[in-house]
UniProtKB/TrEMBL annotation:
Ranges of residues in domain PDEase: 118-444
Organism of provenance: Lotharella globosa
Name of the protein in question: Phosphodiesterase
Phylogenetic placement of the source organism: Eukaryota, Sar, Rhizaria, Cercozoa, Chlorarachniophyceae
Binding positions (Zn(2+) 1): H195, H231, D232, D346
Enzyme class, broadest EC rank: hydrolase
Amino acid sequence: MPVSEEHKPLAVVEVVNKVKVDSYKSMSFVLSPERRRSVMHRRSSSVELDIGHKYVPFKQEDEFTLELICTQIRSMLLLYADAGSLGMYLSHNQITRSLLEMHKVSSTTRSLHHQMSSMNLDVDLMSNTIKRGKKINLDSPDFDVFAHSDEQLVAFAIEIFRRCGVTDQQVDTCKNFVVAVRTRYLKNPFHNWKHGFCVFHHSYLILSEVSKKKGWSRNSILYLLVSALSHDVGHPGNTNDFEINSQSERAVRYNHQSVLENHHCSLCFQIMRDPSCNLFKDLEGEKFLRMKNTIINLILATDMKHHFKMQSKMRSMSNEKKAEEVKGGSSGRQQVEMEILIHSADLANQGLVWSISSVWADRVCDEFQAQAESETKLGLPVAPFMRGLEKPTGRAKLQMSFIDAILVPWWDLVRTVMSSKLVEKICENLGKNRKRYSEVKDDKTALSKLKF
């Protein structure tokens, strides 16, 4: 029978086990004491909603909503939960019910609709969950993103936002924003949620030492953190050149100019169009425009085509006599410094300890290798640096070239304009990692599995 009224889910009795993209396995949740809706993964690619013995097509918005539900539950509640008792734990948990109350079933479309504004979880409860688990040092340059689940990183991102000025009144909005961004990151080998969090975290580490010295405002800090977290949201796992050469819809939309970076900007502001996800919803007029222009310019600054121009600006800034010559005076200087900071955070992973940097090296090479295969099939040009990456020696050679030509010159300048513990650690690790890449002889073992 058709659904004639809106029902709110009350409790999850079994959390989704996502077995592959766009398919769900065995998730069911209670809509009301009298009615239950099951979402079933079938052998075919179709997924349907069971409503009173009538099946309704599983819509795209339902897919998004279910992903969101699972992400939120696991992020806020199950950071250190015992998976073995998951079903019983969730069935009677007040926190789970609160999470699910922000979802409704439409009386007209029978689709699940996300009601972000109704989210009212106590963030302190989430923080206490973290404290009950192992202690996490978010201020460490050696923080290992691979030691934590994607859902745990959501909680850590919220904690960092709080440390950087998000008020108690903004906590719900902050949670909504972080979860929405995390959900829109795609499952690429490299350009994924973990990478987005890493750039966000590296930005935070540098900011924590630099912002006070430079007198940056709370809003400026939040603009940068929002930009860092969103800087690769929706990344398809290929380069701008691939977008342009394949004549993608994105390339046409953005006129071949910083195609992916413009795409990330667009998604960021689409998320913030929802007031419940917008930390800056109270800004109006010139303040609103300043916020928007700042975030746009920060995300666009992560396009590698701007690298050498930014490096030239940084060289000028390192000379005190030329510091005031940067276009725009002190205000313009701060914008340039923020752009340098986010670009630096995006270039940090090869300056981390080997156990982390080598994993990122394998992941980016996996992504390049997949693009090269696609380009070959499509008859598109393949960049020389994307060839020969099936062997660890080829991957090591690529990383050595990147360290020598891009990273060492860049980070040597960064330490002159915004030195911090992370910056010094990166400069030190670049030399160590470069030496290890030069010693790679084994063509059968992934870089991250090599023993030195």
